[in-house]
Amino acid sequence: MTGAAQSALTLQMRPARAEDFAAVVRLVQDPLECFYVHPSGHYPWCVEQLQQLALSRSQLSVVEQAQQVVGFANLYRIVPQESAFIGNLIIGREARGQGAGRALVDYMTEQAVARYRVREVRLSVFSENTPALLLYARMQFIPYALEERSDWRGQSVILIHMKKSIHAG
User: Fold this and answer.
1) Cα 106 from Cα 99, distance rounded (Å)
2) pLDDT digits (tens, 9 = 90+) for 110-138
3) What 3-state class would DSSP assign to 60?
4) What distance lies between CA 28 and its chain's CA centroid?
């Protein structure tokens, strides 16, 4: 069994609890990661920012590896029977490349389908975030819109909106 396959076996997805928030914000290691995860937030990302964000999000979830929180995501802009966005997705640096991102996107997709019966899952990713773009493309997410944004330094960047159709059955 490969190291990645072995690591994937130890991943546990579950709803996030308030006591997880400190571990979640520690996953954000620098201003760029903070911008990718929560563009309207500021670095250092803190529990108070996450608590505020949680008020407008649904299905806050974490991924654990060896009983440590290594990832986080949620759902937002939910239109039952139509679509939902996966948002604020982050995988800690030590868990990247081991299947945690794919597993968390799959879990969030399952949550959106099971709870809201959506036919489409969406997400947004900044054009500079190549590892995330590659992952989402491999998972059959396709771009459908581009949006110009300003990053934390005031520089123009592109936010790519992607979607994946969910086939019933």
Assistant:
1) 11
2) 999 999 999 999 999 999 999 999 999 99
3) strand
4) 12
